Amino acid sequence: MNSIVEASNLKKYYRKTHALDGVSLRLEPGHILGLIGPNGAGKTTLLRSLTGLLRVDGELDVLGHDPWRNRVKVMRDVAFIADTATLPSWARVDQLFTYLEKLHPNFSRAQAETFLARTSVDPKRRIKTLSKGMVVQAHLAMIMAIDAKLLILDEPTLGLDLLFRKTFYTNLLNEYFDGERTIVISTHQVEEIEHILTDVIFLDRGKVVLDTNTESLGDHYASVTVKPEALERARALRPLQEQTLMGHSVFLYEDTPAEKLKQLGEVRRPGLADIFVAKMQENRS
Predict the structure, then answer these.
(1) What pLDDT is attached to residue 116?
(2) Which pLDDT does position 45 carry in this prediction?
(3) Inter-residue contact 244 to 231 (CB < 8 Å)
(4) Domain spanning 5-205: which superfamily?
(5) For 217-284, CATH number?
(6) pLDDT in the model for residue 200
(7) 222 and 268 in contact (C-beta within 8 Å)?
(8) 19, 13 contact by CB (below 8 A)
């Protein structure tokens, strides 16, 4: 099976910033990758390089092409919505559908209208009359109506309320993701996408801090609510993180034998956000 993305030692340096500092990744068809990192971690730089909007050093192959040299070919099978994406304010939503019908051979107007019908956006309204959230909804309807092998979403639900964010990710799974398409999602709302991810990459200061499939997280990370009498033993096992929550001491461990952890207190699988915070703290310590 051919990979969708092959990246090796990607680098992008600015005068005072290493936006990408030796990033490597491989992404297979039918996967949903979560790209997680703080502001300035290099997420948007990486996504822009995948779509040929930015030239980077290193080896990069997207759908069998160098995206910088063959952007037109790559974008036939890639759909991308950026966190700073804008739509022409003078146009009506339905006019943009007509434009996309002529521009993109893989765009389905019927599919876009179906997505939009689930929102409060009137297709006859001009973009300049819509709220920020409505503009995002219209843009998402257009992007998700493109039959692409690779869908790249950079903060896709930014500006949307909680109800629509949940609806969007449900529709993404039920009506867009078919087990063969590949999706990359960059977002700060880790808890909202954790349940749909097959893979995750943590980025910090242009470097990959963690690259793994989500199924294996439970094999490597554990959260323990430590009994008071076991605190010193718990610290001796060198946790990634120690914090107090509602009067309880909660420790996060990486690759620590389960039999040792069970002696300390209640063991559970940590959430992706907990692991992210702990790995960021470790990386910056």
Answers:
(1) 92
(2) 94
(3) no
(4) P-loop containing nucleotide triphosphate hydrolases (3.40.50.300)
(5) 3.30.70
(6) 97
(7) yes
(8) yes
pLDDT at 84: 60
Low-confidence ranges of the chain (pLDDT < 70): 1, 84-85
From residue 126, alpha-carbon distances to 76, 81, 82, 131, 143 in Å are 27, 20, 21, 11, 18
Cα angle value 265/267/268 (rounded, 5°): 150
Domain boundaries, the chain: 5-205, 217-284
> Do 5-205 and 217-284 agree at the fold level?
no
**Residue type (1 letter), 112:** A
| Pair 122, 167: CB distance under 8 Å | no
Long-range (24+ apart) CB contacts under 8 A made by 118-123 are: 118/167, 118/171, 119/164, 121/93, 122/93, 123/92, 123/93, 123/94, 123/97
Q: What is the model's pLDDT at position 133?
A: 82
Distance CA 79, CA 191 (A): 24
pTM of the model: 0.90
32-36/182-186 β-pairing: parallel
pLDDT at residue 1, rounded to an integer: 47
What Rg, from alpha-carbon coordinates, does the chain have?
21
For residues 54 and 20, the answer to whether their CB atoms sit within 8 Å is: no
